[in-house]
Amino acid sequence: MSIAAVRKDLEARGLGDRIREFPVSSATVALAALAVGCEEARIAKTLSFLVDGHAVLIVAAGDAKIDNRKFKDHFHTKAKMLTPEELDTLVGHAPGGVCPFAVPETVEIWLDESLRRFSTVFPAAGSANSAVELSCSELETACGARGWADLCKGWQPQEQ
User: Could you tell me where the DSSP H helices lie in the chain?
Assistant: First the structure.
């Protein structure tokens, strides 16, 4: 998959015009925040895990970290991140451009509560130099999330 697949997916939802492509890398939270011009916490990073033989993507705020206890309580297994090979095979995006859009139907997507404190967030758009600005409800709809879950630590809820 690529930014072209994500663009097609988001265009079908009327959101394609929101994709931003940068002349610099946005492959990490810090780089994405610099490219977008926002605080790191508003970058919606997509973390990829293997659960019962299939891919699970968790979209979380840039300042949040997976809480292993919460993960195990929710998925009934230890958190095991996908290898780059598994990522390519099961999700179809390369490291640095992983996002919850234009992925196979077998991929399970969850949104972490850490995102809800922002009016808009910036997930990647299928490449290591792109992002798309979406409200949390737009993100939920556009990626077909299974729902919201409290899976992370290291962030503090704040009013926006």
Answer: 3-11, 29-36, 68-75, 84-86, 136-143
